[in-house]
Design brief:
heterodimer; A: TIM Barrel; eight-stranded parallel β-barrel; 12 helices; 10 strands; B: Glutaconate Coenzyme A-transferase; 2 domains; ten-stranded mixed β-sheet
């Protein structure tokens, strides 16, 4: 398996490929992933220029370990195939498919990626895929999309288009997104892939943004798409386990290991009932803490 | 001759100016000198009127002549009308070879360029020059030399007699008919008149220009009638909305916020951050954001500032209003909040001399623990350039940069690694304006570098593990790896200006900019 399938992706920052000033050094803000956009942010007549800067950015700029995802144009355009050739040739880490509705969409992109890897001598399987679900049909097909390709590391909700399709609008409360969010996270977990939430566009409401991130964190999402570097510290703060959580997770793992050897199945840690069912969750907390740079322990 | 910051100062410039090359920050420490005193024309007749009907009459009464030096302050900033008004009258009178000795010049003074071209103005002395005058000097249009010196250096130049001001024009928001001047009140409230005190002390003639004549006595006077020869009332001395605007909104630029956070972490993790510490900061987005985040930590740790000094902004005045700083020492009000805050009894006006003159028996800057500064360029020797753009054109001002940098125990310079496509951290700055020996810490968006001479600060920050530490060379290398190493800017041979060190020695020279031409 490509080791990047399960990498840390708390924050995925959208950047317009048309703007060199934006794509030259976004890593200073410390996002886990950047999403270099060839789709909606790029004017129709600038698509070729955006591809040109994308290719050179991917080739020339050391993004210092930040994942480089490229959002290609929709499969209903005549642009996406060339977008993939250009991205793969540049050496991007992942392709984001917009407006994904079926497993077939993912497989079409997978074929194009495979061909491009072959054409440009890129290690087969290096380029991963993620799918953005932007319609009611896409959301309803979440599970088949999640299981469509071994390259697919996750799905992301695109709230703007999705709410339009639902014939509603973004309210800021999250009510209109509740069903899709719940459905998608369940599908992603069923398929063993990651799940990412939509952007929060009101940059003047950082408290609203914080509440939104807390909600999706509680729901189980792996991360959030963001549109401004100011949003990164909040996402990371919420997604990074606290010292209290880390200490508790360490205790849980150690106690389960010890008690298992002693043949004890159920016991208490800090007054809470613990059994084997808590093991994976505690391990995940420690892995996330380690990936976030706040845990250097041995577990 | 090569000076202490490795810059070659041509012998003909040393000869022409009678100056020495810069030889280190404390070269003139303790070296005695005698202050100059101006001629005083006593006013004993109780019928004597100081009022003149216009600028022309003031000039005539002050015996204006070709070759004279006239001085101005920049408290009205980009809203200043005084310099242009007076120089237009001098121009009309056909006077030539004037030395314009302003505390600073900006875009408001662009209309003076034709007077540089026709020889009305042949020398300029200022903290720095922005706008078209800077371009004109860099283009070689000024016949004589431009001397760029710090606020403290200017006071030194006047009190030592190096700059002999024939007529000082002091724009005053309010004045009475006997020349008691205040920086507050009237239509053009600027809060303080700090930069003009030395002109009042040293000029041969002092003319107050106001657009708000008030009943005698206009008290307490910021500049006293005892120093003023004439008072001239005009329609407007400044454009209020360009003098001081509302406080800048806190920046939302994450890059500036990151640098502000690094800066705050540096302050709170170095040894001078303790009860009663002193602090100066500027008006840039990162500086203001840093003051705001510093305030939170001061509150958390129960630490109060002893004094804040310099040009002031709302966040500093907020600290005073909330009892987080004991006193503010004000040389310039940067926003309307700072202007209106001068009524706080713990908000004191000080003169530019008390603030920064290196030839005092001590100045406020010497008592600073921290100063937060910005810079156009910083090199691997920690030298800063705040005057000459990376294109070789004069575009900024020293202000109090060299004064506070030398004075403060911990001088922090905030500078993004790249200014557009230009590496701001570089091997050699285009022009040295503040020597590296004054600069302790450089904060960039890519990390923080500590001057190797400050082992103590480096150790404190390493121990705190609070900011990404890099060497200055590493920062330079990152910058060059992103945008490449630029070829040096090309200049003509002619020296058009000098960067004077605080003590009057020469820090660097500015040569005429060479116009770029494309090869065929």
């Amino acid at each position: 398996m490509n080791p990047n399938m399960k990498r840390l992706r708390r924050s995925m920052m959208f950047l317009n490929c048309q703007k060199p000033g934006l794509i030259k050094d976004p890593y200073v803000y410390g996002p886990d992933s950047i999403m270099l956009d060839l789709e909606d942010a790029v004017a129709e007549k600038e698509k070729d220029a955006a591809r040109y800067s994308l290719y050179h950015a991917l080739q020339e700029i050391d993004y210092r370990g930040v994942e480089r995802v490229v959002r290609i144009n929709g499969l209903d355009t005549d642009l996406w195939r060339e977008d993939i050739r250009c991205s793969v040739a540049g050496g991007c880490d992942s392709i984001r498919i917009p407006k994904t509705e079926t497993a077939k969409d993912v497989q079409l992109v997978e074929e194009a990626v495979e061909a491009a890897e072959k054409e440009f001598g890129i290690e087969p399987g290096r380029t991963l895929i993620m799918a953005a679900l932007e319609s009611a049909r896409g959301v309803m097909n979440a599970l088949e999309i999640c299981e469509a390709s071994p390259r697919l590391f996750g799905i992301a909700l695109s709230g703007g288009d999705y709410t339009k399709d639902l014939q509603t609008t973004i309210s800021g409360t999250g009510v209109e997104l509740m069903g899709a969010r719940q459905h998608m996270i369940i599908a992603a977990r069923a398929a063993g892939v990651q799940c990412f939430d939509t952007v929060y566009t009101n940059l003047n409401d950082m408290e609203g943004f914080r509440r939104d991130v807390e909600t999706i964190h509680t729901m189980g999402f792996d991360g959030k798409s963001i549109i401004n570097p100011r949003q990164i510290p909040i996402v990371h703060e919420i997604f990074t386990p606290t010292q209290k959580e880390i200490i508790f997770a360490e205790k849980v793992v150690r106690e389960i290991d010890t008690k298992k050897a002693q043949g004890i199945g159920v016991f208490t840690v800090d007054g809470k009932m613990i059994d084997i069912a808590f093991y994976d969750g505690a391990k995940r907390t420690l892995a996330l803490a380690r990936a976030s740079g706040v845990y250097k322990g041995e577990l | 001759m090569i000076n202490a910051v490795g810059r070659e100062i041509p012998d003909e410039i040393l000869k022409l100016t009678g100056k020495e090359p810069f030889q280190g920050n404390n070269y003139k420490n303790g070296v005695p000198f005698r202050r100059v005193a101006p001629i005083i024309r006593p006013v004993m007749d109780n019928e004597h009127s100081k009022l003149v009907k216009d600028i022309h009459e003031a000039l005539v009464k002050c015996k204006a002549h070709s070759g004279m030096t006239v001085s101005f302050h920049h408290h009205f900033r980009e809203g200043d009308l005084i310099v242009n008004m007076v120089m237009e009258e001098i121009h009309k009178m056909g006077l030539k070879n004037i030395t314009l000795a302003a505390t600073s010049l900006g875009k408001a003074h662009d209309p003076l360029v034709p007077m540089i071209e026709d020889g009305t103005i042949t020398r300029i002395e200022a903290s720095g020059v922005r706008g078209k005058i800077g371009e004109a000097i860099s283009d070689g249009k000024l016949k004589g030399l431009a001397i760029m010196r710090s606020h403290g250096g200017r006071v030194r130049s006047l009190v030592t007699g190096e700059t002999k001001v024939d007529i000082a024009f002091i724009g005053a928001p309010t004045s009475d008919d006997y020349g008691n001047l205040r920086g507050i009140g009237g239509k053009t409230n600027c809060g303080v008149l700090s930069y003009s005190h030395v002109d009042g002390d040293c000029a041969e003639y002092v003319v107050a220009i106001t657009d708000c004549l008030v009943p005698f006595p206009n008290f307490p006077a910021h500049i006293s009638m005892t120093k003023v020869d004439y008072v001239c009332v005009v329609d407007a001395i400044g454009i209020p909305e360009k003098i001081a605007t509302g406080a800048a909104k806190p920046t939302t630029d994450q890059r500036k916020l990151m640098m502000a956070e690094y800066c705050t972490q540096v302050v709170v993790n170095t040894p001078y951050f303790k009860e009663g510490f002193s602090y100066q900061t500027g008006v840039g987005g990162a500086s203001i954001a840093s003051t705001i985040s510093l305030t939170k930590i001061m509150e958390e740790r129960g630490i109060k500032m002893g004094f804040g000094v310099g040009g002031l902004t709302k966040p500093m005045c907020d600290l005073l209003d909330r009892g987080m700083v004991r006193v503010l020492m004000d040389t310039q009000a940067f926003d309307l909040d700072a202007v209106s805050n001068v009524i706080n009894p713990a908000h004191h006006r000080i003169t530019a001399g008390a603030y920064a003159n290196p030839f005092n028996k001590g100045a406020f800057v010497n008592k600073l623990d921290y100063v937060i500064l910005a810079s156009l360029e910083v090199d691997v020797h920690f030298n800063c350039n705040v005057v000459v753009g990376s294109d070789g054109v004069i575009t900024g001002a020293q202000g109090g940069h060299p004064d506070t940098a030398q004075g403060a125990k911990c001088t922090i310079v905030i500078c993004p690694l790249l200014q557009g496509r230009i590496p701001a951290i570089c091997t050699d700055v285009t022009t040295v304006t503040t020597p590296g020996e004054s600069v302790d810490i450089v904060v960039t968006d890519y990390g923080v570098a500590v001057n190797p001479n400050r082992h103590d600060l480096l150790e404190a920050l390493q121990k705190a593990d609070c900011v990404p530490l890099k060497t200055i060379e590493e920062l330079r290398d990152i910058a060059y790896s992103i945008v490449g190493e630029p070829e040096p800017v090309e200049f003509e041979d002619r020296v058009v200006g000098i960067i004077e060190a605080r003590d009057g020695t020469i820090m660097d020279v500015v040569r005429q900019a060479k116009h770029y031409s494309f090869d065929d």
